[in-house]
Amino acid sequence: MTRVLQVGALKPALAEALASSYDALVLPAPHEQAAFLTEHGPSIGVVVTSGRFGVDRALLDALPELGAIVNFGVGYDSTDVAAAVERGVVISNTPDVLTDCVADTALGLTIDTLRGLAAADRYVRSGGWESGGDYPLTRRVTGRRVGILGLGRIGQAIATRFEGFACPIGYHSRREVPGTSYRYHATPRDLAAASDILVVATSGGPASNGLVDRSVLEALGTEGYLINIARGSVVDEDALVELLRDGGLAGAGLDVFAKEPRVPEELLALDNVVLLPHLASGTVETRADMTRLTLDNLAAWLRDGRLLTPIPEVRG
Ligand code: 8YV
């Protein structure tokens, strides 16, 4: 019988469904994994995991009968896709259902970063308003030049929202996107140089690792803001922290970090950054939709060997 293996601590609703409907096994803590995989590895036909955990090459080696990896989340950079493809293992993710909430978060984060809403809230709560008077002036959002790095589904949804703020929009993607009126820039650096606000919306993984390096951040400049709702791995975090601290950038709004849930200590002391705990898709409605799509992919795979939303790398 094909068994289902849960890899990582998934959201309660998903983990409960896997246990009750599929009698899924759960990959134990690292020190117990060798014995567990020797006993159960050959019976596992499908893994359910999330962007936070994923399946690496060593785990793939221990699962010789694995046919599919069903990933909760649109990002699957924690899975070794090349190793899975080599073995003919297919992968699904949960695109589309989270696009709006992630784009909403990008806008909220941008407004908060430029207007200092969370910092001003802290000012009121700490009694600063009564003792120190008016809050310092902040920066205008409307009309700012916005650069979108990665004009995929989420990038497009973010751009559409910024249109409502009369922002001129440019973008960089691996390829020029046909049919868009937004201005294409050939490199991330060119895009940053032409933007006041650079929004990182590209997918994670080997192709985008370190794409926003020091030179890109420097091109964004002392009046520039970085917003990241994608993956921490896309940005050189050390350079980012240094530039934010030394005035090389005006500010940053970050929902993602290089080593989550660890946030660089130095950022905690800065008021020109807004720090969120990777919550962009975290609404009741979207998480329910992501859970449903994950379970629908699993059911489709087990029923007829077909995934509903396979990732581009494994589409036939
Ligand atoms: C999820 C995300 O919270 O979809 C993604 O890629 O980053 C988030 O929506 C995360 O993947 C769950 O672990």
TrEMBL record:
Segments forming domain D-isomer specific 2-hydroxyacid dehydrogenase NAD-binding: 108-280
PROSITE patterns: D_2_HYDROXYACID_DH_1 (PS00065)
Transmembrane segments: none
One of the record's GO molecular function terms: glyoxylate reductase (NADPH) activity
InterPro entries named among the record's database cross-references: D-isomer_2-hydroxyacid_DH (IPR050223), D-isomer_2_OHA_DH_cat_dom (IPR006139), D-isomer_DH_CS1 (IPR029752), D-isomer_DH_NAD-bd (IPR006140), NAD(P)-bd_dom_sf (IPR036291)
GO CC annotation terms, alphabetical: cytosol
Domain of life: Bacteria
Pfam families tied to this protein: 2-Hacid_dh, 2-Hacid_dh_C
Domain D-isomer specific 2-hydroxyacid dehydrogenase catalytic: 44-310
Key words of the record: NAD, NADP, Oxidoreductase
Family in the record: Belongs to the D-isomer specific 2-hydroxyacid dehydrogenase family.
Name used for this protein in its record: Lactate dehydrogenase-like 2-hydroxyacid dehydrogenase
